[in-house]
Amino acid sequence: MITVALLSKWHVHAVDYAKEAMDHPNLSIRLVWDEDPERGREWARELGVPFEADLDAVLGNPGIDGVIVTAPTNIHRDVMVKAAQYGKHIYTEKVLAITLEECEEILAAVRANQVKFMISLPRMVLPYTRLAQQMLADGALGRLTTVRCRCAHSGVVPYEGHPNGFLPEHFFDPEQCGGGALIDLGAHPLYLSNRLAGPARAVTARLTTYYGHPVDDNSAVIVEYESGALGILETSFVSGSSPFLLELHGTEGSLLVENEAARFKRAADGNAGWIVPELPEALPSPMEQWVEAILKGAPTDITEIDAWRLTQINEAAAVSHREGKRVVVGHSPVHA
What contacts 187, CB < 8 A, 6 or more positions away? Predict the structure, then answer.
């Protein structure tokens, strides 16, 4: 049994991770900490576990094996570096950090203290992502030329009784969040494209605000990859009914995904119709991978380089928008 502490209910997915942990036969929630003590005490009462206001007391507790971090993004570095130094395994919500400097400090602490690390990138394990990776590896699409991915919802669109949409107000705090739609929901297109297209060369972005928020709510990024492929990545909090879209276009064919449905077409087939492929099984969830890594030392499909590249593109996109220019990016100093 792996005993865990929940570190903050700040993120909208905190409740989801708590439920997944409670439902897992090898995880047991023992403590709650929150930078907002009132919120934390209420959550602890709901879960039937103690609340501890002192983070060092939580992390220094020998009865805690790991932590699930859903704290504000701007304190991720401080929380996770300290957790690693106390020898606690770390499961974290995306994004890992606002800057690459913070990201690298976290990952260095993870390695130095030999703890198991997992970042929640849930679309990485889904059948359509596995299919896309398989088709690229098999050469079914030829050489990849373009990835287009869109992930959007209506989080800030007003509706009856909710003039600011369904997202919590603190999701528009630029200090806590480090951004808006792109850094949060846009993580999904970014990490998928990074996985499929490889190392990036340059980033150009526009992070706009349709409703006048202090952070972006409607954004797009173009990523130039070292392979020569382009990533055209879109996200939005102002889309009423936008499906999830993933497109891979190559020199010899295309794969299209809409929500969970996939189809592909090969240039060699001429005017023949689209083919509906059999989807592979999903991989274990990020949390399941984390548990297996702790208990058995099993390798994980989601790795530190996925977290690093996601942070890299987010930071470069923010710079590109702020300075109105194309931003050239480099290799990870650890994983190059």
Answer: 94, 95, 121, 310, 314
